[in-house]
Amino acid sequence: MSQMDAERDGMLEIEEARLEHQTDEGAQEMRAIHRDVVIGGGVWPEDDETMIINMGPQHPSTHGVLRVMMELDGETVLRAAPVIGYLHTGMEKTGEELTYVQGATNVTRMDYLAPLSNELVYSLAVERLLDVDVPPRATWIRMFMVELNRISSHLLFQATNGMDLGAVSMMLYGWRERELVLRYLEKVTGLRMNHNYIRPGGVAADLPDGWDDDVLELLTIVERGVNEYAELLNENPIWVERTVGVGKITTEEAIALGATGPILRSTGFPWDLRKAQPYLAYDDVDFDVVFGENGDVYDRYIIRLFEILESVKIVRQCVEKMPPGDYRVQDRKVTPPPRARIDESMEALIHHFKLFTEGFRVPAGETYVAIESPRGEIGCYLVSDGSGKPVRLHIRGPSFYNLQSMEAMVPGSFVADAVAIISGIDPIMGEVDR
Amino acid sequence: MADDSTREEIHEDGAPEPPARPSDEVAAALLDRFPAAVFHESHGQPVVYVERDAWHDVAAYLRDEEQFTQCMDVTVVDHLVDAERVVIPGVAPERFEVVANFLSHPRNRRIRTICEVPADDARVASIADLYPGVNFAEREAFDLFGVDFPGHPNLVRILMPDDWVGFPLRKDDAPARVPVTFKGDPAPR
Amino acid sequence: MGLDQLPHNFLTARLEDVVRWGRRNSVFPATFGLACCAMEMMATGAPHYDQARFGMEVFRASPRQADLMIVAGRVSQKMAPVLRQVYDQMVEPKWVISMGVCASTGGMFNNYALVQGVDQVVPVDVYVPGCPPGPETLLHGILTLHEQIRTGELLKRRGRTMHGGAGIRIEQFDGIPSHVQPIRPVSKSA
To answer: Which domain holds residue B41?
Structure first.
């Protein structure tokens, strides 16, 4: 007993020492700038008027563990620098350790609000290196699921954006509809989040019975919800005051800073990869690209609101046009055999075993595939060396680049506007830090 | 396998000479301007392997004259323990490859440039002055691989803590699996 | 924790019950959502699962006003000191729920970047499994914690472990309907 106490005391001592150790972790992100104040008659030394404050990483309105260092002159923000890395998980390193079959489980946790987009871009990259074609039903199922995911991601944006700007009831409204979408996703994929459903070769399982009736019911409820949010916020004077003209960015600035997705579209530039460089079956469905004109937070809110309705349109068309057939490619080297066959055929058993222990091999090569996730262009740069595990699995996360646009949007605004701007960027720290 | 058509040409020793004119016009123009570059088509995508010293000039050329408005991504690949590596005639393989993906909005096309970087002199010019959007990406490449980007405005660690020692994504550095014992077992850890 | 040190007799035992009842019924969680588990934690506060019925709707942003820290998500090397600092700022009595497998053991990310289990940094009272645990599992964990607070079991458990947390492990409640029986393997003659 006394040895345990002594150990515990020893641990406490070390912990106290660690806590008292001052750290300037992250200080290199923003150093004070000495400014000379000129008041007639010559140059006066700087007056210590500005203050560098720190927001986060534990903060109610930074989305996840984002830390923002801001230099303030009174209430006006002069500079803002995002400090990231608080959620760095080493997923790219883990990706080199997992087989291609397991890879989707890893990648799906990067952008955890739109996990199916991550899985899709990874699967497309692997399939391109493998040179396999996915059957049409699998393609349409993928598109169907990804658009449902886009709906749930934008609903969560409406909820958190509303809450950050003070409309706390939006939080409850947004989650109310999102919950129904998550239940539907659970019905199809088995999980509410991080589904591991879209895998190289197709999808993991076929759609369940009654999927079309259930989803049409769901879409009616979502549309009703979107109309409610529009009624609540679109012309609400407080909302308009807080978001119109806030965080303006021009198209040149956005493109130079690498921003994509709703941020780029809010500046008036209608760039959407689903239309510009169509993948899956997006050229077979009819939908519009929503874009704004002023590049402010209000435009980004409206764009995401209407994108929900566009996705609803796409999902309805998927229900009408879903082709019959296989839900995954029949190549036994890539796809596991059906479970029932394992009892009957030795070959099926061996294939199943090999696939789930060592996985399949992908010929040497490299490729970059990009799709449009709810946050912008998500890309997967995959390098393979002929073995069962990737050499390099790199995901180009849209939020990683979108966060840099903060440096163009925040200076000149107030601290409260900085919160609105960060919320409008809709960063997901999982894909920023990976 | 699934289909026989070879969209990718893997050049091995003894294979026919690479084509005289690349199929992609931007790559062709790039090769005219930078004769030391080598074109390779990778699964239907144009890739140009450029010299390390020409890296910044190539990016400037792409931005100013070929209208490649956005650099989507800059990353590094560590080929230390490759089982099999694609051999491109005319390109001397090194341990690190720095890869940049470009997108042109007006022309709606993409291109990829790759340069080989030796392990003992891991350095390539920064293109953050041309494309401010790759500021964070180059910092991440430095943080995780230790490749230096001279010319970058603020090349410090971004994902790992400031005082971290080592470059985790190098193949010989951090483990991808750490040993953990069963928690709560009576034996000391 | 003054009241807990009092020797029990008829009068103080009753008072202690009242205090424990009060503590259990108004646990304020601190906002410590890190990653995917934070989404499910917010879903637990959302209308369908509604943790407000258990008195826990109000997420206090300031740790000084919070009792419970639900570590929801993976804790990276850079975040661990921040986690410890937030924990230290909380006022006694305080509880910690480690939500999800990444917080409990490092989860599927067994590498250089994550702290392999948040109990290396703070004492954990309840481990909630799942990746991510659905709202039902999280509620099960929260209600377990509440029950332990109400009966005083929690403090007794803490006294017995080395790291200072109760270390209660619970079952996962998502996706397993209770009426489904496990399939027994039938031995084959072939």
So the answer is: 25-145
Tell me the mean pLDDT in the region A381-397. Answer: 92
Contact status, residue C33 vs residue A428, Cβ threshold 8 Å:
no
Q: What is the mean pLDDT of residues A91-100?
A: 90
Question: Is position B52 within any domain?
Answer: yes
- 3-state DSSP call for residue A218? helix
| Selected residue with higher pLDDT from B124 and B185 | B124
C70 DSSP β-pair partners: C97
State how many domains chain A has: 1
Instruction: Identify all chain C residues contacting A23, using CB atoms and an 8 Å cutoff.
Output: 81
Nearest CA in chain C to A344: C190
Q: Select the more confidently predicted residue: A120 or C132.
A: A120
CB contact under 8 A, B161 and C111: no
Which chain B residues have a beta carbon less than 8 Å from that of A359?
Answer: none
Q: Is residue B140 part of a domain?
A: yes
Confidence check: pLDDT of C178 > 60: no
pLDDT at residue number C96: 92
Please report residues of B whose CB lies closer than 8 A to that of C167. Answer: 184
Q: Which of B75, B91, B156 to mutate to test the interface with A (most CBs of A within 10 A)?
A: B75
Helices A297-321 and A136-164: angle between axes, nearest 10 degrees: 150
**Which chain B residue shows the shortest CA-CA distance from C114?**
B178
User: Is the Cβ of B113 closer than 8 Å to some Cβ of chain A?
Assistant: no
Range(s) of the domain holding residue A281: 117-360
Residue of A nearest to C135 (CA): A192
Average pLDDT of the residues of chain C: 81
Whether the predicted pLDDT of C153 surpasses 90: no
Q: Is residue B114 part of a domain?
A: yes
pLDDT for the residue numbered A149: 94
Residue among B160, B161, B178 whose CB faces C111 most closely: B178
Domain of residue C120 covers 29-169
- Asked whether the bond before A45 is cis by omega within 30 degrees of 0, the reply is no
How many structural domains are present in chain C? 1
Chain A segment 330-359 residues within 8 A of B by beta carbon are: 331, 333
Return the percentage of chain A with pLDDT > 70, whole number.
89
Shortest distance, CA B77 to any CA of chain A (angstroms) = 6
> CB A194 to CB C131 under 8 A?
yes
Closest to A373 (Cα-Cα) out of A118, A104, A155, A197: A118
pLDDT for residue A96 is more than 80:
yes
Which among C120, C78, C115 is positioned nearest to A25, based on CA atoms?
A: C78
Q: What is the pLDDT of residue A28?
A: 63
B1 close contact with C: CB closer than 8 A:
no
Closest to B66 (Cα-Cα) out of B25, B98, B100:
B25
Tens of pLDDT, residues A171-205: 888 998 999 999 899 889 988 999 999 999 889 88
Q: Using the beta-carbon criterion (under 8 Å), do A175 and C46 form an inter-chain contact?
A: yes
**Probe site for chain C from B172, B181, B183 (most C CB atoms < 10 A):** B183
What domain count does chain B have? 1
Percentages helix, strand, coil for chain A (3-state, rounded to 5) are: 50, 10, 35
In the sheet that holds B38-42, the strands lie side by side as: B38-42, B45-49, B109-117, B96-104, B70-78
Give the residue on A whose Cα is nearest the Cα of B46: A367
